[in-house]
Amino acid sequence: MVAPAAVFQTVITCQRCYNRRKLTCRSSVGAASVAGADMTEAQRTSQVRQTVTRRIQTLGRQKRPKEAVSQLAEMARLGVQPDTQAATALIDACVRNKKMDMAQSVFEELFGEFLQPDDVTFSVLMRGYGEMNPPSWVLISGLLKMMDKKFSMKPSLAVHNTLLDICSRTRDEQRGLEIIDMMHSAGLQPDDFTLDIVKQRKVLRSHLKRLYN
Fold first, then answer.
1. What SS3 class is residue 29?
2. Are 108 and 124 found together in one domain?
3. Shared-domain flag, residues 135 and 97
């Protein structure tokens, strides 16, 4: 198994080649299945990304996160720059398997210089830190600050739902009330997932109803 650090270096090197339009990286593994002679470059890129992202998701469900990491390097070797969806799928594969150090490494190596994270990226990372026992609110708070300071992003409803779900699951009602207040102040409307999160927590459910009804 290739070490994650070596995989990240391969991805970064291939991304730099891609950005300079000097795609000298090649791979024979799986190339025939993802690239047809009559495809345009845009079509080939899209198909490679979709195929590899699905593989990463499958490997995550199969509890094979290290192999999922290798798949991202395979995408880069095929001359295709990984996108936000593929990188987020890899973070999710790590989170699913309680590999938070690996998930954080993926985020730090791929997002910022090369890729722009989206709210799903942050939600997945926060979910992982929320599943620690106890939840690592210090690291979650750091991610919220990073969204604002580094990426000029405001927490979406998906992010608020992730945080609220952590509070509901761990019976952290005080923090849950604060998150509902934050959501309301941001002008976000609860969705069905929000309602499902609070339905077993009377204090949270009542507070949500009071603010939005």
1. coil
2. no
3. no
- Pairwise CA distance, residues 29 & 94, whole Å: 24
Domain that holds residue 188: 117-213
What is the tally of structural domains in the chain?
Answer: 2
Residues 161 and 174 in one domain: yes
17 and 79 belong to one structural domain = yes
The answer to whether 166 and 179 are in contact (CB under 8 A) is: no
Q: Are 86 and 180 found together in one domain?
A: no
pLDDT (tens digit, 0 to 9) for every residue of the chain, 213 residues total? 445 555 556 565 555 555 554 444 444 345 444 444 456 888 989 999 999 999 999 999 999 999 999 998 888 888 888 999 999 999 999 999 999 999 999 999 999 888 999 999 999 999 999 999 999 999 999 999 999 999 999 999 999 999 999 999 999 999 999 999 999 999 999 999 999 999 999 999 999 999 998
Quote the pTM value. Answer: 0.83
Best CA proximity match to 160, nearest among 198, 110, 199: 198
